[in-house]
Amino acid sequence: MTAAEVIATVHGSPLTDLPENLYIPPEALRVILEETFEGPMDLLLYLIRRRNLDIMAVSIAQVTEQYLDYISLMEGMKIELAAEYLLMAALLAEIKSRLLLPRPASCEAEEEDPRAELVRRLKEYEKMKRAASALDGLPRMGRDSFPACPDLDLPPRPKVLPQITVEELAAAFRKALTRAERIKSHPVAREALSVRERMSRILDRLGEGDVVAFENLFELREGRAGVVVTFLALLELCKEGLVEVLQAGPLMPLRIQAR
Amino acid sequence: MTLKQIVEALLLASPEPLELRQLVSLLEEEGPSREELETILQELASDYRGRVLELIRVAGGWRFQLRREMAPWVGRLFPEKVGRYSRALLETLAIIAYRQPVTRGDIEAIRGVAVSSHIMRTLQDREWVKIVGHKEVPGRPALYATTENFLNDFNLQSLSQLPPVSVEEDEKTEEQRETEAVRATA
Amino acid sequence: MTLKQIVEALLLASPEPLELRQLVSLLEEEGPSREELETILQELASDYRGRVLELIRVAGGWRFQLRREMAPWVGRLFPEKVGRYSRALLETLAIIAYRQPVTRGDIEAIRGVAVSSHIMRTLQDREWVKIVGHKEVPGRPALYATTENFLNDFNLQSLSQLPPVSVEEDEKTEEQRETEAVRATA
Q1: Are residues C168 and C114 in the same domain?
Q2: Which one of C69, C70, C78, C80 would you mutate to disrupt binding with B, by most B Cβ within 10 Å of its Cβ?
Q3: Is C110–A147 a contact, with Cβ atoms under 8 angstroms apart?
Q4: Residues C103 and C14 placed together within one structural domain of the fold
Q5: Tens digits of per-residue pLDDT, A173-199?
Q6: CA distance A256 to chain B (A)
Q7: Do the chains contact at A164 and B154, CB–CB below 8 Å?
């Protein structure tokens, strides 16, 4: 903006400079940019259409000038612009510089007009902008038409409960057990019960020539596994001829003694 | 648009019954009197009498309703969705079936997580599970078991018909290890 | 009940448009032919013409809806719903509708700005847009397209009914030039 430009007329006299105390907060300008334009394509299109120019006929140089002016105005006011606006500014500046550069005649045929890509994009964007407003113009459910919503008056029906098969039940149980094994913590190692060790212990007890009642050799606190180990140990001892099993008669208590 | 058409449209589109005073406030701009609206509602109700849709007066106001006679066909639009039971429920039931009688604590010990009261209630509502006694330990927790209804629903004559669930791998291994140990010493 | 009354009731009760084949399967017991149903639908549509409710055909099938002219009043029932959508959302929807299937990158290339995730989510929540696949390029970006619900909500029977976006003069010329070239070589 040049200083000579008349901004407004105040009490009949022209005003050429912004008064020092008239301050437009940069935020307000940023809002205009963000609320009015959907992005750099939209702003560019606005700059072209403002003059009723055809995209094809437009002078890129002229629009570029205006766009860059706009951006530098924003920057001058320390407005943080969305990166997309700056990207477009860079693209425009590049196109402008390429147009200014003299090109050797031989290259001219191959090199595409740098404006072509931009023009194509602008046209596509404008088409989609028009498509958007055409879509918005279609009668829309919930805005222009509404569904009928009568009460259906259906009688209540008995609830259908899910069914399970026996196989699903068995599978669930197997899964629960498998998982239980995995998640069970094993801080207590099961007492090691070896048959040989038990054989020695039994012989030790029988060592003084005592006769011990069969059932007294078992310790209930050891559980099933203990009983099994003790029994196996006794069988081993019999087999090796180290102990004798005595029974006074059928169904009488068994007694064990060392040989 | 006539006022009658507008009232008709409002009643057709409203998902809830509309009371006279709601119609008055929706049509504030048009400003009909209560009497006018009352007449219109009576007229509409008689216009629709005997048709597929009927205008009826319910507790909440006026409402268009599909005639009850249409229910057998309309019901077909909303086939019933049969839900599925959660894995948690299935496992809880399985543990009760295979290990009964069990306390909630027993079930939790196997599953490793707390048993939700919701699941226990569902199982009891379904009459698959019932409380058969209390364990004689502190707190006297309830002991759960399956019911006769459970057997009927699962086509079982007795619990012994439950499919056998194989002993776990590692338990087997342990037994085998013991047997092998005995053999080795022999 | 006549078959026509049953069809009328089904259409009035259904929350979604009903296609002819859906009606055939709902009325399997009654066993009307497709032709019979087609005739009934045409009759119903003409019976209702000019009334507050109308029977129309959209992509998903046949649907009763309140006439568009009633919107100013009916809209008062749903003050929160009669929302306006932002230009950004409409442009995004337009690009997906007219250029589908497209990636977010495609949309961004046309609009020149990043596509907000909020807009994409809104479009998907509204069931106007869905992911139909992935483009076989690095990163395999999602490809978006419009749904049947989009067509239903915009009163369209197919995408070909989307309002045409006028082709610019010079593009036409280019096409014509091509056509002419083809003719010339033929």
Answers
A1: yes
A2: C70
A3: no
A4: no
A5: 998 888 887 765 544 444 455 777 778
A6: 21
A7: yes
pLDDT at B45 over 70: yes
Q: Which domain holds residue C60?
A: 3-75
In-domain check, residue B143: yes
- By CB atoms closer than 10 A (0-12, 13-18, 19+), residue B74 is buried
The per-residue pLDDT for range B113-143, each reduced to its tens digit, is 888 899 999 999 999 999 998 888 888 899 9
Q: Stretch B146-162: mean pLDDT, rounded?
A: 89
Residues C61 and C114 in one domain: no
Angle in degrees, CA C32, C38, C43, rounded to 5: 110
Q: Which residue has the tokens 């028009």?
A: A130
- The minimum CA-CA distance between B20 and chain C, rounded to whole Å, is 14
- Exposure string of C74-85, with b = 16+ CB inside 10 Å and e = fewer, is bbbbeeeebeeb
Both C71 and C107 in one domain: the answer is no
Asked whether the beta carbons of B128 and B149 are under 8 A apart, the reply is yes
pTM of the model as a whole: 0.65
d(Cα C114, Cα C71) in Å, to the nearest integer?
Answer: 35
Number of domains observed in the structure of chain B: 2
Note the pLDDT tens digit of each residue in A136-145: 999 998 888 8
pLDDT at A124 over 50: yes
Confidence of residue C19 (pLDDT cuts 50, 70, 90): very high
A114: three-class secondary structure by DSSP: helix
Helix or strand holding residue A24 (H, E): none
Instruction: Give the confidence band of C167 by pLDDT, cuts at 50, 70, 90.
Output: low
Does C80 reach chain A within 8 Å, measured CB to CB? no
Identify the band that residue C90 occupies on the pLDDT scale cut at 50, 70 and 90. very high
Residues C28 and C92 in one domain: no
Given C53, C75, C97, the domain boundary residue is C75
Distance from CA of A171 to the nearest CA of C (A): 37
For residue C77, give the nearest of B1, B10, B69 by CB distance.
B10
Interface contact flag, A176 B91, Cβ < 8 Å:
yes
More confident residue, A51 or C131: C131
Confidence band, pLDDT 50/70/90 cuts, at residue C185: very low
Is C128 in the same domain as C178?
Answer: yes
**Does residue C81 lie in a domain region?**
no
For residue C108, which of C149, C75, C141 has the smallest C-alpha distance?
C141
Same domain, B91 and B179: yes
Domain boundary among C75, C100, C123: C75
